[in-house]
Specification:
Blueprint lengths: L2 H7 L8 E4 L6 E2 L9 E2 L1 H12 L3 E7 L2 H10 L10 E3 L3 H12 L6 E5 L2 H10 L4 E4 L18 H22 L4 H6 L3 E7 L5 H10 L12 H9 L3 E10 L2 E12 L4 E9 L11 H12 L3 E7 L5 H9 L3 E6 L2 E6 L11 E4 L2
Parallel strand pairs: 1-4, 1-6, 4-5, 6-7, 8-15, 11-12
Antiparallel strand pairs: 2-3, 8-9, 9-10, 10-11, 12-14, 13-14
Helix pairs in contact: 4-5
Length: 351
């Protein structure tokens, strides 16, 4: 990837969600398995910590001995920064694919730092949308593509939330029982509330970062959301989730336009981190209930983005049918004759 191609790929602000690091002669100077002492590069450590503070995640793709590499990272106080590290002898492209799958982000949201041109080219060949960075050029990580417009309280806690997710997933894998029985052990509480001004930075961030569980793919600015929040003709809702392991943070957003004979759901999105928690329809069901209480039907916008097929299925299972289609743009409608409840294992707190 030449300079021009990289600049084009980096054009979208806040695009990168995770930086994947090589180890030998990248994160540290030297080669671990050749028996010599390796020295962690202080400028790399500073960059890892800076990006972590603004909500950028980190992982590792290194051809190395797992136990030896993790021991060295622990000795440097760095092991906690890396999610789902892939330290093995597989192609780096395969490791990056595994990281994206584990974190549940698009492959195009990853940047890969490595000192070897061959390794960078191997990744570029397999995943052309991954941003590759020479280990000697880490100033690239200061590009606006790595800088979210807002740094929220949740941005600073993102790594910890993902580590809690990893712990939940580990426990679930060892659980002997059905998925619903496991979910019932989590003591989950789903909270829906009217959006307040202090919610809007995170709300904007959700519209930018959420792809798979986003009904339209549209982004909204802080200013747009603030105007809609104050509009008597609109209902702007945010949702959060907690369980016995901690908070998932603000994970859902809905924007409904009130009207007669139908309300219009302009946006519905949910963080991919809660996809497996059985809570995906709770916010939709609440909007349906509110519309029905006002004697209206409910229409819902949907725009096919290539990633959000799950949202199409969500509307279909909730009893919506297509009433309009213009290319990739659809409008669903429900007469609200049937509204599903939420699972017994979930406590729901409503506004």
């Amino acid at each position: 990837m030449n300079v021009t191609e990289r600049e084009e790929a980096l054009a979208k602000r806040g695009r990168i969600k995770c930086v994947v690091w090589d180890l030998d002669n990248t994160l540290w100077e030297g080669t671990l398995l050749e028996g010599g002492e390796v020295t962690v590069r202080p400028e790399v450590v500073a960059e890892i910590r800076r990006l972590d503070e603004i909500g950028i995640l980190h992982s590792i793709a290194s051809k190395n001995d797992y136990d030896a590499a993790m021991a060295r990272l622990r000795a440097a106080g760095l092991d906690e920064y890396f999610l789902y590290p892939q330290i093995n002898w597989n192609p780096k492209s395969s490791s990056i694919e595994q990281i994206a799958k584990a974190i549940n982000i698009g492959i195009d949201a990853i940047a890969f730092v490595d000192d070897q041109p061959f390794e960078r080219e191997e990744v570029e060949h397999a995943h052309p949308s991954v941003i590759t960075v020479d280990a000697l050029e880490i100033d690239v990580l200061k590009h606006p593509a790595f800088e979210p417009r807002f740094v929220t309280d949740e941005s600073k806690l993102r790594r910890h939330m993902y580590r809690s997710d990893a712990e939940r997933n580990r426990i679930e894998q060892d659980y002997h029982g059905t998925s619903e029985e496991f979910l019932a052990t989590l003591d989950m509480k789903f909270t829906i509330r009217l959006a307040q001004r202090e919610d809007l930075r995170r709300a904007e961030e959700l519209t930018v970062r959420t792809n798979q569980l986003n009904s339209t793919g549209r982004t909204y600015s802080y200013e747009e959301l603030d105007e809609l929040r104050q509009s008597p003709d609109h209902l702007l809702l945010v949702a959060s989730l907690t369980d016995k392991y901690g908070s998932y943070g603000t994970i859902g957003l809905a924007l409904a336009e009130r009207g007669k004979p139908a309300w219009h759901l302009r946006m519905l999105l949910m963080s991919c981190r809660v996809m497996a928690r059985g809570v995906g329809t709770v916010l939709l069901n609440y909007v349906m209930t509110r519309a029905k209480e006002e004697g209206a039907k409910l229409r819902a916008d949907f725009v096919e983005t290539g990633r959000n097929r799950v949202m199409y299925v969500t509307y279909a299972f909730a009893g919506f049918t297509e009433v309009e289609r213009d290319g990739s743009r659809l409008v669903f409608e429900s007469d609200l004759s049937t509204i599903q409840g939420w699972p017994d294992y979930l406590t729901v707190d409503l506004p």
